[in-house]
Amino acid sequence: MISKTILPRGTILTLCAVAVFSLSGCKLVKNVPEDEKAVSAGASGDEVRTGQRISDTFETRLLPYVRDRALSYQAFRTALAQGLDEAGQSHGNRGSGQGAAWNFAITDSGRIVSAKLDTRARVAELDIDGDGSADVTVQLGPVIRGNALRDIAPFYNFDDFRDQIEFAKLGRALNDQVSAMVQLPEGDLVGRRMAFTGVTPLKKADEAVLVTPISVDVLP
After folding, report:
1. pTM (global) more than 0.70
2. Can you list the pairs that 20-28 forms with residues at least 24 positions away whose Cβ atoms lie under 8 Å?
3. Element (H, E) at 89
4. What is the DSSP letter of 62?
5. What's the distance, CA 219 to chain centroid?
6. 215, 219, 200, 68: which is closest to 136 by C-alpha?
7. Which residue, among 198, 193, 184, has the nearest Cα to 72 in the 3D structure?
8. What is the pLDDT of residues 88-134, one digit of tens each?
């Protein structure tokens, strides 16, 4: 036979009250995986969003976009002869903000007439047309200046960013990506040929051509 214990009514009410009070003071917290946590809309979320943009666009959109639109140096100069704005509207993309540069994709090769390699902002000057003087300067990193890679691409729209600071972070991150891709041979580069594909920004048609490359190949 199973014995039953009958609690007094007062005791039952007290236990119920304690149970209700305890539950009301508890908060159930869902264990959310790290990759599902919300990204901050503020500055603390910039790095996450920038990394995701790089992952989503660098290989699949930016590099093909530059390669597909790249002009030879001669074709680039021919287009500029018609006027910078005309050339930009046909072949380039303008950065955000008043007075922003037009950005053009170009691809070619030339003889290296000068190379500055004793700095973190390494560069090589190339003679493309064979007259012995430099026509373009190619940035070789690891420090790469400017935002040409960001500004050539219409899919990097300033309105999609938190502010100018986050927009600038993307420009630096893109430069870091291409800088890591540049591999140079040992020894002096002067006199050797270099093939390149990249982007140059221009605010004036006669401005010096400074290329941020997406590919560099030093030939014998």
Report:
1. yes
2. none
3. helix 84-91
4. I
5. 28
6. 200
7. 198
8. 999 999 998 888 999 999 999 999 999 999 999 999 999 999 999 99
